[in-house]
Design goal:
Layout: H1 10-33, H2 43-49, H3 51-56, H4 59-82, H5 91-105, H6 108-117, H7 123-149, H8 161-172, H9 174-184, H10 189-204, H11 208-219
């Protein structure tokens, strides 16, 4: 007999939909705020050195914007993947999801910091704070998934535990990889940001475990 704790109910589905809707709003706000740090050169600046020169000087802002945009985008994609599998919620899930959203909504600040201090004597500190925040968010994300997936706590009884464990292992690589990008910032701040972009692209690609779990989750 199916354990009622795993049973998906209309109330549970409605609560999950509310969590997703609220989370989507936070993700969209955070990703929109990123562009506010990219300012159009004034006409006085253009008259002094030329518009093209001023646009080229924006490359630190654009690089930080691209890295943060794809980081938040991929975080949203994987958040969506998780909630195709999560069928129930409780107070701990709400708190852990809120912790993740706290991390995401603050991304524009370290983004602006990194953009401002690239090519400055303190660029290593700024970029390490920037990639370090990605590391912190990766920890929050893992906490959310591990709590929901532990013994299929908030999934369904039909969810393949071996596939869920495979997904846990894949996500567990995120924190160490972002920590590596953080440490690279000690020697090459620019490379550290490039590595962050590469990691975002890597985690955007769904593994076979993710595909099989999300397909089965959609059928349940």
């Amino acid at each position: 007999m199916e354990n009622p704790l795993w049973r998906s109910t209309p109330e549970g589905e409605k609560e999950i939909a509310r969590i997703e809707a609220f989370s989507d709003g936070v993700f969209s706000i955070a990703i929109t705020l990123l562009v506010l740090d990219i300012h159009v050169p004034t006409t006085d600046q253009a008259d002094a050195t030329g518009l093209l020169s001023q646009l080229l000087h924006l490359w630190p802002n654009m690089l930080a914007f691209v890295a943060s945009f794809f980081f938040i985008l991929v975080m949203w994609i994987n958040h969506h993947r998780l909630f195709t599998l999560i069928r129930r919620s409780d107070n701990n899930l709400l708190l852990l999801n809120g912790l993740l959203l706290f991390g995401v909504i603050l991304v524009p600040f370290p983004t602006a910091l990194a953009a401002e201090y690239l090519q400055h004597r303190d660029e290593a500190t700024a970029v390490m704070f920037y990639t370090g925040w990605f590391f912190v968010i990766a920890i929050f994300f893992n906490l959310l998934w591990r709590y929901a997936a532990h013994n299929n706590r908030l999934l369904t009884e039909k969810t393949d535990r071996q596939l869920a464990a495979a997904l846990t292992r894949q996500f567990s690589f995120g924190s160490p990889l972002y920590l590596a990008a953080l440490l690279v910032g000690l020697f090459s701040p620019l490379l550290s940001i490039v590595l962050s972009i590469a990691l975002a692209v890597f985690f955007a690609l769904p593994s076979k475990a993710i595909q099989r779990l999300t397909e089965s989750g959609a059928k349940q």
